[in-house]
């Protein structure tokens, strides 16, 4: 039904440095979620869901607990989310999500990465109009029909529902993400999510070859190495 969205993320090998960045990113996100709401997972559903994802990524409990305790205090870091849009090689585009306590530092590092491959950042909405902001869940499911019916019974509007080889992928509005998870987890206790993401998904994908592909990979890896960058969305088909 509807558009089938490409949700496979472009990932790099999880080296020690990459693993360390995952820990840092979750610590920032958990701190921010606890700061925005209550620093209690039982009273803050966003914080609870984020902690669940962090544990799945094997983020140590002490990192999670320190982030929550820090959010309970006064002062400390004041992280904010900033989004940058840019143009890569060929017809490629990128949306870079960051969590930072110093916007000037972050934009300087992001702009430098683009400059090194002779590409540039764009203004707000110069790229994002070609993306959809969505929630996506994917998991093993033996009875997709029953699940779909239960979602409808809960008055949840599903954008896309795909069932293939025993795996279901559901695309929904971001505000319905937690509602869908509640239904899924009621029907499938201890479900293991293959994909659990709210983000920007390109409406159309492109394929790069040769030098353009090499340049894109170089740009992506430089952006991914920036500590403040938490997500990179793009419109490139990755092998």
Structure description:
The radius of gyration is 19 Å and the shape is globular. A hairpin with a 5-residue loop joins strand 1 and strand 2. It is 40% helix and 24% strand. It contains 7 helices and 8 strands; from the N terminus they run H-H-H-E-E-H-E-E-H-E-E-H-E-H-E. It has 2 domains: 1-130 and 202-239, Alpha-Beta Plaits, CATH 3.30.70.980; 131-201, Alpha-Beta Plaits. By secondary structure, it is an alpha+beta fold.
Sheet having the most strands: 4 strands, antiparallel
Number of DSSP helices? 7
DSSP summary, beta strand count: 8
What is the total domain count? 2
The helix/strand series, from N terminus to C terminus, equals HHHEEHEEHEEHEHE
Structural shape: globular
Radius of gyration: 19 Å
The chain-level structural class is alpha+beta
Kindly, what is the distance between the CA atoms of the first and last residues, rounded to a whole number of angstroms?
Answer: 25 Å
User: Order of strands in the sheet with the most strands?
Assistant: 3-1-2-8
Going by CATH, the homologous superfamily of the largest domain would be YebC, transcriptional regulation domain
Helix content: 25-40%
Mean pLDDT, to the nearest integer, reads 88
Query: At CATH's second level, what is the architecture of the largest domain?
Result: 2-Layer Sandwich
Kindly estimate the percentage of residues that lie in beta strands according to DSSP.
Answer: 15-25%
| CATH fold annotation of the largest domain | Alpha-Beta Plaits
**CATH class assignment of the largest domain:** Alpha Beta
- Which consecutive residue ranges, at least 5 long each, have pLDDT under 50? 8-15
């Amino acid at each position: 039904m509807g558009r089938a969205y490409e949700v496979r993320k472009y990932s790099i090998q999880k080296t020690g440095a990459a693993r360390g960045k995952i820990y840092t990113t979750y610590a920032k996100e958990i701190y921010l979620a606890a700061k925005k709401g209550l620093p209690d997972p039982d009273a803050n559903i966003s914080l609870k869901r984020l902690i669940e994802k962090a544990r799945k990524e094997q983020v140590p409990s002490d990192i999670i607990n320190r982030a929550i305790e820090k959010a309970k205090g006064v002062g400390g870091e004041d992280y904010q989310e900033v989004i940058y849009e840019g143009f890569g090689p060929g017809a490629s585009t990128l949306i870079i999500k960051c969590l930072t306590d110093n916007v000037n530092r972050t934009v300087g590092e992001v702009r430098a990465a683009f400059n090194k491959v002779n590409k540039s950042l764009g203004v707000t909405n110069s790229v994002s109009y070609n993306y959809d902001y969505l929630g996506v869940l994917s998991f093993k499911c033996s009875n997709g029909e029953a699940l779909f019916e239960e979602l409808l019974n809960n008055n949840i509007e599903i954008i896309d529902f795909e069932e293939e080889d025993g795996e279901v992928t559901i695309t929904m509005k971001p505000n319905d993400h937690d509602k869908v998870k509640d239904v899924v987890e009621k029907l499938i206790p201890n479900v293991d999510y293959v994909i659990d993401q709210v983000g920007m998904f390109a409406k159309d994908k492109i394929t790069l070859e040769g030098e353009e592909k090499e340049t894109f990979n170089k740009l992506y890896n430089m952006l991914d190495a920036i500590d403040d960058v938490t997500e990179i969305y793009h419109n490139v088909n990755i092998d």
